[in-house]
Amino acid sequence: MDKKKLLNEKGGFLGWFKSNWSQNAMFSTIFALVIMVLIQCVVQTINIGSVGGMFGAMGRAWLNILRNNTYAGIIALGMCFIIISGGIDLSVGSMMCALGAVLMYLITPSNGLLAKMGITGVGAYIIAIILVLVLGMVFGEMNGCLIAYGKLPPFIATLGTMKIFRSVTQQLTKQFNPEVPDGFKLLTSAKIGGQVILPIIYWVAVVVLMHIIFKKTAFGRQTIAVGSNERAAKLSGINVSRVKRRIYALGGVMCAIGAIIYIARIGSMDFANAGSGYEMDAIAATVIGGASLSGGSGSIVGAIIGAAIMGVLRNGLVLLDVSAYWQQTVIGAVIILAVALDNLRHMKKKA
User: Fold this and answer.
1) Is-contact 21 31, C-beta < 8 A?
2) pLDDT at 1 over 70
3) Which of 35, 68, 74 minimizes the C-alpha distance to 253?
4) CA 143, CA 251: separation in Å to the nearest integer?
5) Which of 114, 227, 275, 320 could form a disulfide with 85 if both were Cys (CB 3.0 to 4.6 A apart)?
6) According to DSSP H, which parts of 69-112 are helical?
7) pTM (predicted TM-score)
């Protein structure tokens, strides 16, 4: 059957478009991203006055968008696994803040733990990074155990740990004046081709690794199985509790990577506000990218496209001089629209 005949059977191009928009999450996500980029190109051309200047401005804007969304984008990768498994994690922003505080306590050259032990320089950075990654896994395991073995709803369990991570971090850092060594900042500030792109390279590397885990390993298939039908997964021999625990542990590791890149790039951390809202950004990116909040469907590629949409949306709102308050309104509306489309797709499948 040729393409023209297929389009006619579906009501022409408009019918084909409506069908893909409502049923194909990846199609609607990519289409929305393209439209948003085109709108920004028009705005840039109007502001700058030339097409050449527009392309240069858009190139710089894309680098800024990707750099600024590295932390939330990496956290979204872990959230993608969690949501596909049928769970949710509200603690990721506070967890990243807590892990960042630990990292800074370890590497501060004046009164940091490793400095007191006589360990400084590259050796201290390597040890600190390993310890923070392990601690991130432990924090994630805590969430996983509460959900898998304590039988707490993911929303309640992670809401509780969100408060714990944030409050304990603030309490323990009240008299703490950390300092990030310049050597550690080189992890993200070193230039390649005259541009600061190391954070983006790290993000791409993590994306590739997570995509391989999701697509090529038994763990990835088990994640989908648990989210699709937990009872059927148990009957097929999958240790559901262990899989859930590992999923949340993986999410914790993503938070640790986000904290490491954040500290290296910013050089400090506001323990009261750092990471606030990252859980919503990660959830939004995952859902916009086609993952279902009911579990069982989604993809790493979709989560990355969703994160890009969030970044482009924020950048576009800034270009249009929309106030920060209205920006949150628009982002909230986008999240509602994404969930509504997800529900629509599920309703049509059931019908």
Assistant:
1) yes
2) no
3) 74
4) 10
5) 227
6) 70-84, 92-107
7) 0.86
